[in-house]
Amino acid sequence: MKMLFMALVSAALFTGCAHHYHRLGGSSLDLYLKAPGASSVVFASSLDGYEPHPASRAGRGLWVVRVPGNREFSYFYKVDGRVFIPECDCHEYDEFGSESCVYVPGM
Q1: What backbone torsions phi and psi does residue 105 show, to the nearest 5 degrees?
Q2: At residue 3, what are phi and psi to the nearest 5 degrees?
Q3: Residue 106: which region, alpha, beta or left (left: phi > 0; alpha: psi -120 to 50)?
Q4: What span, in angstroms and rounded, lies between the C-alpha atoms of 85 and 91?
Q5: For residues 99 and 76, what is the distance between their CA atoms, to the nearest angstrom?
């Protein structure tokens, strides 16, 4: 029981109560990640073969990345060097069992 408690506390500290949302503006999509304790956030997606893109600071603990919003793609974040999969409406698993979020336009 003590190990479970420590794991939950560690997860909460790592994510810093991280959550994310998006806003569509014309043909571009802004993805926001609220990660107050993060010193770096990187975004990777299937749009370009999962090339890492540093997110920009957009305020107190808020990070943003802009991508095309007119097609479906899978994505994940790296927060301080560790993979982070936020709560998302749609997700998928790859052949290795790793999870990614999926953005579907109009959904």
Answers
A1: -55, 135
A2: -65, -40
A3: left
A4: 9
A5: 8
Cβ atoms of 107 and 93 within 8 Å: the answer is no
Task: Quickly list H helices, 16-85.
Answer: none
Length of the chain: 107
pLDDT in tens, 88-106: 889 898 888 889 999 999 8
**Can you count the helices (H) and strands (E) in the chain?**
1, 10
pTM over 0.90: no
Q: What is the CA radius of gyration of the chain?
A: 14
Task: Give dist(CA 64, CA 20) in Å, integer.
Answer: 10
Nearest CA among 61, 63, 69 for reference residue 23:
69
Give pLDDT tens digits for 32-59.
Answer: 999 999 999 999 999 999 999 999 999 8
